[in-house]
Design goal:
The structure holds two protein chains of two kinds.
Chain A (H helix, E strand, L loop, with lengths): L4 E3 L4 H10 L4 E4 L5 H6 L7 E4 L9 E4 L1 E5 L4 H6 L1 H6 L1 H8 L4 H6 L2 H6 L8 H6 L3 E6 L2 E6 L4 E3 L2 E2 L6 E7 L6 E8 L10 E11 L5 E11 L6 E2 L1 H7 L2 E2 L2 H14 L10 H20 L8
Helix pairs in contact in A: 9-10, 10-11
Chain B lengths: L3 E7 L2 E7 L5 H8 L18 E4 L2 E4 L12 E3 L12 H8 L9 H14 L5 H7 L11 H13 L3
Parallel strand pairs in B: 1-5
Antiparallel strand pairs in B: 1-2, 3-4, 3-5
Classes of the chains: A alpha+beta, B alpha+beta.
Chain lengths: 294, 157
């Protein structure tokens, strides 16, 4: 690692000021599971590392209306939280399929989002749940829908001096269901080849027919950023979740993906798998006989 | 180079240390405190050989800046030995023949102890999940898993 100065402030305002003073040459440290690797490889050579470890309140999970997830909430905290298991099981399931236990002790939601990897596993389910990012900077606070948070590979809307404080997720109603499926080479310690997050709101019109009043489909690892498949959503919004509509929407979602060939998978395969994962999840979520949860 | 002062409790002993901010917790354990049971493997959090308990939770110590561990408590594989007696997990892994080259063993022992603290009677699947972040290239895992399941089955909790 290149030399750097280490800071461990106790308020976000101070952390933000230190980062702003270093004018793009500072890095916030949350879990460190991405940051330290990049620093060891000298891909990133910050002059200041600002730990958020001692800032109070950043590891809180609270449900008062919206769900509030502090940026330093770890993946293991998500898995263990009663609030998450009861009301947002998709987030606990997603966390459980990331890395291994040791890394999950350290790795945080905020770190996963702020590193802005196209394959960040927390992004599709949180975007499917219509989450918002609360960002603190020297100038004050701003709230950005997570849909607009990612700019490109490794780039978010965060400016020098800005820090993600928390994620807000609207409380789902009784008719909301969400899931995230990740395709990987093995079941632990792997990065997604493709990840698809889906949420649906289902109005029960009669005992057999289910009308989908709202739907969000989010594709991971198949574009420069996590991507809403908006044309696919339009096909389903206000319509019946039957096999024909679902198959149509899944095909369109695959067309909306912009995958690349790389070491983990091919463009062709990723596109095919977007269709499969989208169709599979919509079929599961549309089937009221299935209990979705952990 | 700027030095950074930290307090660290390791296996119950308090230490005041002046470290380079670039040092990882793993480096401080091995180089400053000469606790060589915690191993450096991949140096990127993938292999689990450097697993220690930090405030009672398993972490890859190669991905923790020692400066960021200021004021916290660490348990390494050395700290699991009580009055010269190896931990039940260590004895079981030896008895089952779950050690070959031994490089991964300290990390696997620490991960297994962390699991047993949270879940005293894990089944095979739960052991597999708990050590999914620990790579072993020799044993094929079967004997390690059998050993940890046995410790859980025999524990008197």
């Amino acid at each position: 690692m290149k030399p750097f100065e280490f800071f461990s402030p106790i308020t976000l305002a101070e952390a933000s000021r230190i980062l702003a003073d270093h004018n793009g040459q500072g890095r916030a440290l949350a879990g460190g599971t991405d940051l330290l690797i990049r620093m060891k490889r000298k891909q990133w050579t910050p002059r200041a590392v600002v730990s958020l470890n001692r800032v109070a309140g950043l590891n809180e999970i609270a449900l008062n209306g919206d769900l509030k997830l502090g940026a330093r909430v770890t993946l293991n905290q998500l898995i263990r939280s009663q609030i998450i298991r009861a009301h947002f099981p998709v987030l606990a399931q997603t966390a459980r399929n990331m890395a291994g236990v040791q890394v999950r002790t350290l790795a945080t939601i905020g770190g996963n989002l702020c590193n802005a990897s196209p394959s960040a596993d927390m992004a599709p389910p949180l975007m499917a749940l219509n989450a918002r990012a609360v960002i603190i900077g020297v100038e004050g606070e701003r709230i950005v829908p997570l849909d607009e948070f990612f700019v490109g590979p490794g780039k978010s809307v965060l400016q020098p001096g800005e820090i993600l404080r928390e994620i807000l997720v609207p409380r789902p109603n009784d008719f909301t269901r969400a899931s995230y499926h990740k395709l990987e080479h093995r079941q632990a310690m792997d990065i997604a080849m493709v990840g698809v997050g889906v949420s649906v709101q289902i109005e029960h019109r009669t005992s057999n027919i289910e009308n989908c009043s709202d739907v969000r489909i989010v594709l991971g690892a198949v574009a420069p950023t996590p991507l809403r498949a908006k044309r696919a959503e339009e096909i389903l919004r206000g319509n019946i979740l039957n096999e024909e509509n679902i198959a149509h929407a899944a095909r369109v979602a695959a067309e909306e993906a912009k995958p690349i060939d790389d070491v983990r998978s091919s463009m062709w395969y990723r596109r095919e798998m977007v269709e499969v994962l989208t169709r599979r999840q919509l079929m599961e979520l549309g089937d009221s006989r299935l209990e979705i949860g952990d | 180079m700027q030095r950074h002062h930290i307090s660290l409790t390791v296996n119950g002993d308090s230490h005041e240390l002046n470290i380079d901010p670039r040092q990882t917790l793993l480096q401080v354990l091995r180089e400053d405190l000469e606790l060589h049971g915690t191993h450096l493997g991949c140096d990127s959090g993938d292999c689990g050989a450097c697993t220690v308990l930090l405030d009672n939770e398993p972490v890859p110590s190669c991905l923790v800046l020692a400066a960021d561990a200021d004021g916290r408590a660490v348990v390494t594989v050395e700290g699991l030995v009580q009055n010269g007696e190896p931990h039940a997990v260590q004895k079981a892994i030896v008895a089952h023949g779950g050690v070959q080259c031994g490089y991964c063993t300290p990390g696997i022992v620490v991960s297994s102890v962390a699991l047993l603290q949270e879940n005293p009677h894990p089944n095979e699947q739960q052991v597999r999940e708990a050590i999914a972040g620990n790579l072993c290239r020799c044993t094929g895992y079967q004997k390690i898993i059998a050993a940890v399941v046995e410790v859980g089955a025999e524990s008197g909790f």
